[in-house]
Amino acid sequence: MRHLLLNTLIKQNVYRLGCNRYSTLQEPKEPIVKSKAIPGPKSLELKDKLDAVQSTGTIQLFADYEKSAGNYICDVDGNVLLDVYTQISSVPLGYNHPRLINVFKDEKNLKTLINRPALGVFPGKEWPEKLHSILMNIAPKGLNKITTMMCGSCSNENAYKSIFIWYQNKVRGTAAFTEQEKCSCMINQAPGSPQLSILSFKGAFHGRTLGALSTTHSKYIHKMDIPSFDWPVASFPQYKYPLDENVAENKKEDQKCLSEVEDLIEQYTKKSNPVAGVAIEPIQSEGGDNEASPEFFRGLQSICKKRGVALLIDEVQTGGGGTGKFWCHEHFNFEQPPDVVTFSKKLQLGGYFHNDDFVPNEPYRIFNTWMGDPGKVLLLEEIIKVIQEEKLLANVNETGKVLKDGLLNLEKEFPNILNSTRGRGTFLAINCTNTNVRDRIITALRHTGVQTGGCGDISIRFRPALVFKKYHANIVLDRFRTVLKSL
Ligand SMILES: Cc1ncc(COP(=O)(O)O)c(C=O)c1O
């Protein structure tokens, strides 16, 4: 009977937040903070238990995902926090969205979820249609191929491999692999394992797996003790804010960084370690929400085209609508599509879009067991429908304006604490005087019921779900003001 009731409520899309899992889930009017500190006692107890078998140094709290709803995340101590961090920018529709819960009420979909295939070998009969109708439907303009993967790091990792294969195909032409190439690659030697590089930028974050890590430069702790490739690292523009008052200076900064890219490409060609690809985030996220202008990105693309280097745009964090466009690089008005666009997070599975040139010419060159997850694609299908039906990109732009204007006002009100509000849509950040002040603000915000995140050394980042509304933004701004006054 109770199950019947739940099914009916879910079918009617009625969902209200509550302790009883059979009641409907609804967002509270405002955050609820019950424990004296967060993490509270129950979170700490669970942390101890987990600590016995797994490292817990990064854990902020233990969530109760049964009770979390919409923009609010519940923890095991009864705190209900307005979540503007959303699992490091990974929750497009908030928690327990009824449309997503419905997906697995359909037994056909449930079977897709539980019979997870090795997609490269035994894909299900629905897979080609799903890729065409769901993933190619959101493909960046001009890219007609996709390689599905697992997470952000492994998407970049495999995309780099695709770039190297593409580069060597150009060098080799139509000739077959030589015997020498076949033997030498087996012992990590040239010519089979050639010296090739990926150029990345200071402050970048492209993941923590072994190859991707050579292009990550946001924090030493990610890299310490891990061997790295000798790959070039260029300066990313560092702008003066507000942007409209520092146009000439920031333009010079763009030029300086672009010249450095050209110099490095030249330098690495000369030392026989040519640059095959450039990897860049549309907004450097982990590294501190550093933006670069559309002119910078177009200049970078033109250098890449001139030098025969592939341009990879890493949209792992920016992709999926948070910047007010589905792909952040749509803001740049590129003359031609980028060569490779990687994604993960809000899109549920990982992967990269590309064109025919980046399809390996032989099987098993880009491959792993899962190569994505059809269950996640079912969720993505529903997410995209909701984004379109509920015009969530327009919502992001409207709410983003409220949040950004509010942050700019706070910056004026507290000039000794805050500066450099920036970002697009609701993908926003603000700088604090120093790391200590930033960390104190994030902790204090959490204790007033607002979950934000830090990035870089001194920035607070905002990564709400696409269903974050103006009234949510006003709650965040009110609580932020209270915290700033208390400092
Ligand atoms: C821009 C970017 N690239 C790659 C990654 C790595 O993704 P994952 O943590 O899923 O491996 C991240 C993660 O935050 C990211 O922000």
Automatic annotation (TrEMBL):
<dbReference type="InterPro" id="IPR015424">
    <property type="entry name" value="PyrdxlP-dep_Trfase"/>
</dbReference>
<dbReference type="InterPro" id="IPR004631">
    <property type="entry name" value="4NH2But_aminotransferase_euk"/>
</dbReference>
<dbReference type="GO" id="GO:0047298">
    <property type="term" value="F:(S)-3-amino-2-methylpropionate transaminase activity"/>
</dbReference>
<dbReference type="Pfam" id="PF00202">
    <property type="entry name" value="Aminotran_3"/>
</dbReference>
<keyword id="KW-0663">Pyridoxal phosphate</keyword>
<dbReference type="GO" id="GO:0009450">
    <property type="term" value="P:gamma-aminobutyric acid catabolic process"/>
</dbReference>
<dbReference type="GO" id="GO:0030170">
    <property type="term" value="F:pyridoxal phosphate binding"/>
</dbReference>
<keyword id="KW-0808">Transferase</keyword>
<dbReference type="GO" id="GO:0042749">
    <property type="term" value="P:regulation of circadian sleep/wake cycle"/>
</dbReference>
<dbReference type="GO" id="GO:0034386">
    <property type="term" value="F:4-aminobutyrate:2-oxoglutarate transaminase activity"/>
</dbReference>
<dbReference type="GO" id="GO:0006109">
    <property type="term" value="P:regulation of carbohydrate metabolic process"/>
</dbReference>
<dbReference type="GO" id="GO:2000211">
    <property type="term" value="P:regulation of glutamate metabolic process"/>
</dbReference>
<dbReference type="GO" id="GO:0005739">
    <property type="term" value="C:mitochondrion"/>
</dbReference>
<protein>
    <recommendedName>
        <fullName>(S)-3-amino-2-methylpropionate transaminase</fullName>
        <ecNumber>2.6.1.19</ecNumber>
        <ecNumber>2.6.1.22</ecNumber>
    </recommendedName>
</protein>
<dbReference type="InterPro" id="IPR015421">
    <property type="entry name" value="PyrdxlP-dep_Trfase_major"/>
</dbReference>
<dbReference type="InterPro" id="IPR015422">
    <property type="entry name" value="PyrdxlP-dep_Trfase_small"/>
</dbReference>
<dbReference type="InterPro" id="IPR005814">
    <property type="entry name" value="Aminotrans_3"/>
</dbReference>
<keyword id="KW-0032">Aminotransferase</keyword>
<comment type="similarity">
    <text>Belongs to the class-III pyridoxal-phosphate-dependent aminotransferase family.</text>
</comment>
